[in-house]
Design brief:
Strand content: 25-35%
Shape: globular
Number of helices: 10
Largest sheet: 6 strands, antiparallel
Helix content: 25-40%
Number of domains: 2
Order of helices and strands: EEEEEEEEEHEHHHHHHHHHEE
Structural class: alpha+beta
Distance between the termini: 5 Å
Length: about 280
């Protein structure tokens, strides 16, 4: 399996997309099974000649020459997803920052992606989408593919009217130094608590409480692998402002099904920002 990560070039897209990555295999007997973990980012996968199976918190993507293209979008989830890849694959993944994908769809996010994974159909009616897919997969150079992708994305770009307000809310939710309560953040924006939760869930796909918990988990994971001085679990938890060590352990068990020491000791780092826990692979 060849994995390559590339980064947005267009200045507008840099605001909304964290990175792209490509997964390519040329072995019909290829198989990989791994866990993907809750994230505040959203992934959109676009395959050539592939099919899928989705059952609760399990997703399988496999080669199918009879299906020219397949697009799957990740919704929100707060426990691990088991992912199974098999056969010859050529997959692009767009990793959107929070609210990123919202700028390129016409419906609220929770209407587009109500489940952990589902088929993505929002661009099916776009006049340039079939031509984009044809030219994209006729090109083998991933840098040139990014040029084609970004040109298409800009045809779908429609800034979300509520984006500025929601970005401010996200910044407050993920400021772990201040660590304001959800009710205080709602009050800061003159929004009643229930309205605040409905508004946030409509555009982010999960409640502010769940978003903050996942963001704190991801913050601690980033710290563990980014800073050499943060080597022990106590420091990792403290840096992300977990209330105490027992809460730190509970969150990790929910997000990963493992305690922190076991999870962090077995995680696989495929790129600087791409972490999985492989169960089986023949990479």
């Amino acid at each position: 399996m060849h994995v390559e990560a590339l980064y947005p070039v267009h200045p507008v897209l840099k605001q909304y997309i964290e990175y792209y990555y490509f997964v390519q295999t040329d072995d019909p007997n290829f198989e990989a099974i791994y866990y993907a973990y809750p994230h505040t980012f959203n992934s959109l996968n676009i395959h050539k000649c592939a099919d899928y199976e989705i059952h609760d918190h399990f997703k399988k993507e496999f080669e199918n020459p009879k299906k020219p293209y397949l697009s799957l979008v990740q919704g929100r989830y707060n426990i691990p997803i088991l992912v199974h890849l098999s056969g010859k694959l050529d997959k692009l993944t767009i990793v959107f920052r929070p609210l990123g994908i919202n700028q390129f769809i016409r419906k609220p996010f929770d209407a587009v992606a109500p489940h952990p994974f589902q088929v993505f159909r929002e661009w099916d009616a776009a006049s340039g989408y079939p031509d984009f897919l044809t030219h994209f997969y006729a090109t083998s150079d991933n840098v040139k593919r990014i040029d084609l992708l970004e040109a298409f994305l800009m045809t779908q770009y429609r800034p979300l009217p509520e984006n500025e307000l929601l970005q401010e809310i996200i910044e407050e939710l993920t400021d772990f130094d201040r660590d304001e309560k959800i009710s205080a953040i709602a009050k800061n924006h003159f929004i009643e608590d229930r309205t605040f939760t409905r508004f946030f869930t409509k555009h982010l796909g999960l409640s502010p409480v769940s978003f903050k918990k996942i963001a704190r988990f991801r913050h601690s994971l980033k710290d563990k692998f980014s800073y050499s001085r943060l080597m022990n679990l106590t420091q990792v938890g403290y840096q992300s402002n977990f209330y105490d060590q027992s809460y730190f352990v509970r969150v990790y068990k929910q997000m990963t099904n493992e305690n922190p020491s076991s999870f962090l000791g077995h995680i696989n780092k495929l790129t600087d920002r791409l972490f999985f826990r492989f169960v089986k692979d023949n990479i």
